[in-house]
Protein: Cytochrome bd-I ubiquinol oxidase subunit 2 apoprotein
Organism: Chryseolinea serpens
Amino acid sequence: MNYVVITFLWLSILLYFVLGGADFGAGIIELFTSSHQVSRTRRTLYHAIGPIWEANHMWLIIAVVILFVGFPVIYTQLSIYLHIPMLIMLLGITARGTAFVFRHYDAVRDEMQELYNRVFVWSSFVTPLFLGIIAGSTVSGQIQPDAKDFLTAYVYGWFNWFSVAVGFFTVALCGFLAAVYLIGEAEDERDRREFIRKARNANLIAIACGVLVFVAAEIDNVPLMKWVFKDAVGLLAVSAATVSLIALWALIRRKRRLLLRLLVSFQVTMILLAISYAHFPNIIIMANGESLSLYEYEAPAKTLAALGWALLVGSLFILPALFYLYYSFQIKKMRHFEE
């Protein structure tokens, strides 16, 4: 049953990056949109993320619950050494959700709308930044379990070149995801061309940030090159991501909205696979050489069995409901535009 639990953990992290990442990316796009275009962009964002934006955080909750119940030692270590970036990320999620609701549903339109807008766009930037920092920190080898002072124990483990570079790469990737998704939400050709331009810019920034991640990995002695290019699965995943990127840009002007979304989601999946497969099942790599494995630090067999069955049974109820929610607000609308 541990394989079932691990599969759900990986899928929940992947879905949060893909769906939640596109959600955050919508705010990032708004942050970097000029003032004379922001109202049109904001209107499209409302149609895109309004119906499903809160459901995206369900995947993060599932991942946290799986770690808490199924891998308590790993959960504890993450909560101790990375509590600062985790707190900032959670504050960003809270601020973003609050600002989105108030700026959309506030009955009084006054100067507070500008405050809501600023909180929304900046929390949309900060939250994936620290999500990426947390992800990078787990495999950076910078966490010091034997630290004797506060900065070494709770700051330098995540405030380093590699983790910060992964954070900015995550932000760029979220912007790219959102821009591609929003191409299918544009109601006229002018908006569609604008989102294609934003997707191109976000793609270039993501590539630059990806190069920065490899440079930072060399500085901090993270064997990223080995994980990605000296492992058969990693190399295959990178190749697949590259081919899908070429296919995406070949099809981006042909109004294949669903196919574009599948391609960009596939790219993110391959990127995560390339980075995570080589050091699996080690989910945290410490500075002293110790690694916390999902196999060695799992909960008792009965606990994992109960968790696994709960996830399997729960998915029978949750997944169809989520699919219908997405179908109701996205696929029906997509078919309307294509007709």
About this structure: The first strand starts at residue 282 and ends at 285. Residues 301-338 form the longest helix (38 residues).
